[in-house]
Fold:
Amino acid sequence: MRVPISWLREHVEIPTDATAEDIQAALVRVGLEEEAIHRSELVGPIVVGQVIEFVDEPQSNGKTIRWCQVDVGALRDGGSAASSGTDAAASGRDIRGIVCGAHNFFAGDKVVVTLPGSVLPGPFPIAARKTYGHISDGMIASVKELGMGEEHDGILRLAEIGIDAEPGTDAISLLGLDDYSVEINVTPDRGYVLSMRGVAREYSNSTGATFTDPALRGTLVQLAETPASGFGLTVRDDAPIRGAVGCTVFSARVVRGIDPQRPTPPWMASRLRLAGIRSISLPVDISNYVMVELGQPTHAYDLAKLNGGITVRRAKAGETLVTLDDQNRTLHEEDLLITDDSGPIGLAGVMGGAHTEISSTTTDVLIEAANFDPVTIARTARRHKLPSEASKRFERGVDPRVATIASARVAELLVELAGGTLDTFGGLIEQQTAPDAILLRDGFVESLIGVEYTDTEVTSSLEAIGATVEQVAGALRVTPPTWRPDLTDEPTLAEEVARIVGYDRIPSVLPVAPPGRGLTRTQRLRRNAAIVLAANGLTEVQPYPFLSEQMHHLFSGDAPAVRLANALDAEVSLLRRSVLPGLLDVARRNLSRGLTDLAIFEVGVVFLPEPGKSYGSGPLPAGNEHPGAEKLAELNDGIPPQPWHVGALFLGDRSTKQPAQQPVAASLADAIVAAQQLASAVSATIRVEQGNHPAMHPGRTAELFVEDTVVGVAGELLPAIAADLDLPRVVALLELDLSALIDLADREVATAPISSYPAATQDLSLVVSRDIPAGEVLAVVREGTGELLEDIRLVDDYRGDGVDDDHKSLTFALRFRAADRTLTAAEATEAKLAGVALASERFGATLRE
Structure:
């Protein structure tokens, strides 16, 4: 909401020396959020000028310019009247020679002249300069150049906007261009602040300044109470939403004999511009002006185009409407319509229809001011993707008592500015009810807010927001004002007391954590997993957890997935069972931006629904009701298991080319090393075995075990999938079930003292069948060597000359150490041969010659 300050001053007393920052700070004190301050970029001298004469001069480029002589006021010191070639000194007038490319003005016209030294929005400084063979001593400005609008069909002729002023008059103040506005953010529950009436009231509540309600001006109230009749009005709601009637108030007034082509007064156009609304035409501008002033949207119909009376009803299946934006819209049966005997003529509370639009030939106008159901309007605006200033207000709740005032205000302005005559023809339907009273128990505000408030503070705060307060036994009976539909119970009233008295009264008290608390073991280890990956050079990312059918099938096959009922994108509506698709999407985006070497990871939840089970909570309990144990159990049962997974992706080069070193490409080995680092971070030990995954290369995929439980997979993406996703041929992937890994990890971390005795190292090469996994051979050798073996690593997997085609040679590096003595070579050899013997027994392994 943009708030023009000159307009605000009409409704609340603001000190003359108050700055924009002061006003914004006052509004922040009562809970409104500051956004920005909007000031004019114009810098003078910018004055009214009168075109004395001009000469059309065709140019070689085909363009015709006008060499103009313009009177810009009385001659001042430093004036350059000599440039015009006229006897300015004798006349005492400052006559400037100005080159102009526009042709929409005549001799004698009053215009706006930007003199040398002025600055236009952009910024665009003005200086005397030579152009088309003349010294142009200033510029005649257009509406767009002055920042008053987007039209740029020619220069601004002051007569067209109803202004006549002496040459030399300051045009900035004359056109209201010296005003400024403050912008505030209005939360959805405080729709009444989307008006000057609401903002002025809030400024008064913050500062104690005198507030004058524009809706209570005597002559306006008298006009609003003057009955209008004879026009047929009907509300027929066959499909109320949540039992709420779509329209509770409909006020119609008629003004005859208007001139729709009269210009909008500069003061009104300026205020609308500062409020963020473009000036269109006088009738439309008046409607927008009243909407911003009172918070009540209105609409004007060309009375001659209406066919019979007006009926407010829901749409019928298959009905269509051409709205003011010239779009033919197919209507939904929940849409609330304004109709006449010919059919729909407007989407209630959202946008009018093109058929009854005000045009340049309109003389008689029907003014509509109504109150519509917020939910209905919100659904219609979203359904048709048609947000408007009107719908923004209706869906937040508009004061039902201000509709008749607003229609009277529009009529008043049409009479005053458009030359119309008020007619008694019209009508009114009212089905509204008074707000329900709320009992505010003594002491409730203090118990909820935690601050002691006096009875006077509570009562005066509630009266300041417009509520009626009555003292009853042990409580206050509070009737909220009609413009505050958000005030429904004791807590909302307590919030208002805290807001009006001041949030600075509420002490800032940090809760004290009980001793011995902190991160749980699971939280700590999950954090360790992320830290160890980041410390090893990987970058953490956070993709969306949503998948398409295709990506789900690639990574999870036919496993069930949870489908979102209201997805952001209908084609990406499944909750993920794997974190890998999100990492691939991040990789694609970064590759498209030139980042070719990537090592990224994510720690997040996946969703693993059980086959054949449907998920969903059914109807949720009301927000102020405790659901109870049975309902909580039902809600929890409607949530699929959500274990934590960690995924990593590597592509491009692990290390780049450097002097004396070639680049090292990322591969499956990086994924396996990352898995081992993760296992170490949570005090677990991973075993690697060859495995399979539907999206990974069958010969380059490993299953990851802790004891006999599969906790993850590492591998290289299938080249065909990589090509489809515009990724390099080699993309290494890792995914671990972090929750399972933590559950299987050692609860106590065993630490061994550093031995002072030397180690004995030996190598061992075993020939085994190709189909025996190297990990199984390593595990058997470790088992056979016994307690003296400190470490064993696979260092080579050889297949070639000297080894049968169906066999392979596995070379292991072994390190032996005793805790109480120095081992001899014979002891180390004996332990090694014990491992060989067990491998021979299990797999038929032989020592390689």
The chain is about 25% helix and 25% strand.
